[in-house]
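seq:
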Amino acid sequence: MVQLRRGLPRVPGGEPWPPLIDDTPAPAPAPAMRQGLPRVPGGEPWPPVAAAAVAAAPAAAPVAADTAAAASAENTVEVPLRRGLPRVAGGDGWPPAGTVRVAAPPETAPTPAAATAPEPAPAPAPAPAPAAASKPEPVEAERGRGVVVKRWLAALALLAVVAILGARWFIGTDTGAEFVERYDGTQPLPDNAPVGFPAWLNWAHFFNMFLMAMIIKTGIDVRREKRPAGYWTSKRGRKISLTQWLHQTLDIAWVVLGVVFYVLLFTTGQWMRIVPTSWEAIPNAISAGLQYLALDWPNERSWVAYNALQELFYFITVFIASPLAIVSGFRMSSMWPKSWTGVPVAWARAVHFPTMIYFLVFIAIHVFLVLTTGVRSNMNGMFTARESSDWIGVLVFLLALAVTALGWFVARGSFAAPLAKLTGKVSKR
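struct:
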């Protein structure tokens, strides 16, 4: 390398020009160290600036020493350098081991203020989460079926109030009064019609009450059943749930009772009490209905004869609703032969459930009228075959009600398993 010739200085008292050029390569500048939080409250950021300067290069140790010598010994402290990762693979940690003197923090000076540390500022309270972020509390929503039932009940209640007010208004008019006077609600019976209730009718009434309650209960269970308690398989290989088997068995018992009832009804002449024998039964039934709605009961003497409205409803129940329930239920049951395709199952389903609703409404109205039109005389006629006003009929009715309640409790598939085994195979699946 050619040595440059140096001349006079460019300024008085300066160095000769050009300056002496050193061809020794200068060390690469080290990256500045990043300062963090202070190590003591109120102190300087760590590491200090002097330490960062010392760690800049291996040759910085003499510079740090000169800097420390220039500083006052009273106001400096010696601290070790914190070493990190090596700058090259396989090298020593950076910066190299050593110490450096830095300015002492204010806390090291024995001042009165340093005797008591300042109280830390209270942490700010966390801001409440926004309402949208919080999970809403679960609100139990009403099922659609429950809402529909409530709406129907409200509509029926409103309809009942309107019907009562309308009937009372109509009977209060001249036209209504004349109609009720002409058709008082009674239906004349044939001269040979029997009077009173025979004992067989009392027994038929009890068994009909018991079986109807069991059939309605098991029918509802069949519609709601999801996990049957067991299954029944017939000898022909048809498999149904135990609840369905119990429902069908009760249906068969009810049909047998109905056959016996029909035979005795026509052989004893009792059919004349529930079968209209003249077209005057229709206006008389309307008149009786108006009197019921107006809360002015028509004359009741069921021991001798029913009024026209009772007669009409008994006729519908015995000769229309009951056969429809039997036929539609038989079509939906496992006993229906597969080769009989003349009656669609859709028709049976469309008829069977509304028929059950009719029976429920009929039973509710029947019980209500029995309790409000002379409960003791009515109970004696239905359960003791006597025209009396004592309490014996009521006691017999309560006993029959207890037996029916017990049957309602045990009318389930698990209790029917021992009986089902007598007619087929019972299994869990």
